[in-house]
Design a protein that fits this description.
With 489 residues, the protein is of the alpha+beta class. The protein has two domains: 5-181, Orthogonal Bundle (Transferase(Phosphotransferase), domain 1); 193-370, Serine Threonine Protein Phosphatase 5, Tetratricopeptide repeat, CATH 1.25.40. The chain has 22 helices and six strands. The chain has helices at residues 31-36, 43-60, 96-102, 105-111, 124-141, 150-164, 175-181, 193-220, 225-233, 242-259, 262-272, 277-289, 296-308, 316-326, 332-346, 354-369, 373-386, 390-406, 410-423, 428-440, 446-459, 467-476; strands spanning 5-15, 18-30, 77-80, 85-87, 478-481, 484-487. The strands form two sheets. The protein has a four-stranded antiparallel beta sheet. A two-stranded antiparallel sheet has the order 5-6. The longest helix has 28 residues, at 193-220. The two termini are 43 Å apart.
Amino acid sequence: MASKEEYDVLRLIEHGQTCYISSECVEGWILAGWLKSQPGIPKGRLFALIRDLAGQLGMIHKCRKKPCYQYVNPYSIVVTEEGRLYFLDLEAGSNEKQLKFMQKRAVRECFLPAEEAYYQKASTGLDIYGAGKTIQYILSVTVPQPPLNRREERRFQNIISKCLKYQSKLAYQSAAEIRRNIPQYRKKIRHSRIRRKKAFMIGGAVLFLAAAWKLQDLIQMGRHQAVTQASQEDGNTRKPPAWEAQGIMELAMAYILDVEDYEKSIRYLEKIKDDYTPAEDLQEVVEALLGRRKEPGELGKHLKALEEAAPEEGCERWYRCLIRGYGLLNTRQSAESILRLGKACLDELDEESEESKEVKEYMVSACERVEESEEAARIYEELLEQTEDNGKREEIYRKIIVLYENCGQNDRALDACIRGVEEQTDSEGLKIMHIRLLCQDGAVDRGLCVQTIQGYISQSREILEMEEFQKLQREYEIQVEGDQVWVGR
């Protein structure tokens, strides 16, 4: 891959139905060249890239002064090392060479309709046409991993077709329509035929053992109790075979993960712990989960031993039990273990399942513990898609904003804040965060700050009484008199 270069790009700040535009310098690569160095791009990243392209174009179309870009093609887009997309600022003198390149006939013919042979005018329709050709180009030079399935292929064919229907009523009328139709990548549970057969056998064994042990309990409480005790006194206790011990272990894990009846799981682990060492380690973990605290060092030893005993295949449930145990240890090492085991679990779980959500919740706490703010924000973005409760969604938005700020991704923090405000319309806290993000950015016009504050005050004057807002007033010399607002700095 060619080395990174500096480019002057458009910085887009979305505010409701309007977008404000400025310029900034970033390091990155022109999209066309970057794609050629990414032949095996992960499917999730590819979809996110195309969605970001449509999102950036949609924001440009919200700009009042220049609501079209005109040169939409893979040579006018920059990709940063973090994977962010930006459109080149074509009014910057530093991009003159790139502009002349895009005006060449070979480029024009690829990204303009036949009836529009030159970049002589700008329109939303031409921008959408260019976006369709750019998506077509992206898919032609990359090999997604895993490959697109038939449904995804049909979806992209439809998207491209509707983009290229220039001046037709059937064409997309906005970039937002493109973005909405880009498929979501969902990881599927990957089981080989052998593993499916094994899972079926284990499932059957677990059910059989559950019934067997329950029956045994009933018998012991009845008339055969004396016979059983006598046989135990004679030393004739039966050592369970390995397959039976493993089946009971699976049953205990089912009570931990699916039923969350820890006491019941201990009951089954007691039956095999003397003859099956991993059962003893798991029992110690469950005892800790019940609040019967173990010394951190002691619990750590049991967790390590349990991890070493995990089967080579089908270990997702073992790992989820381990993650719960490591979650009790407030150490960097335990956080790193959660992240390692969590990634392995997510490879096996349906991305939208409750199980994956639980794993991500542990992982995001671990990320915060080891100060991986950007990764934590990314996982919170995924959790946001899986969370319906408004209160929890607002809390997640707040965390995403702070985490992006912590890692210097202020644009992303602002994007997340705007999304949160638009969704959580009654959240005064998110509105104050929005005001703070705008005021603390020296590149943002003070007029935008004033307009934003006036808008929020008109929605609810209660914001003026909030301590957080009053703190911003002192820090940025914000004055409010009636409907008039001034921002001093």
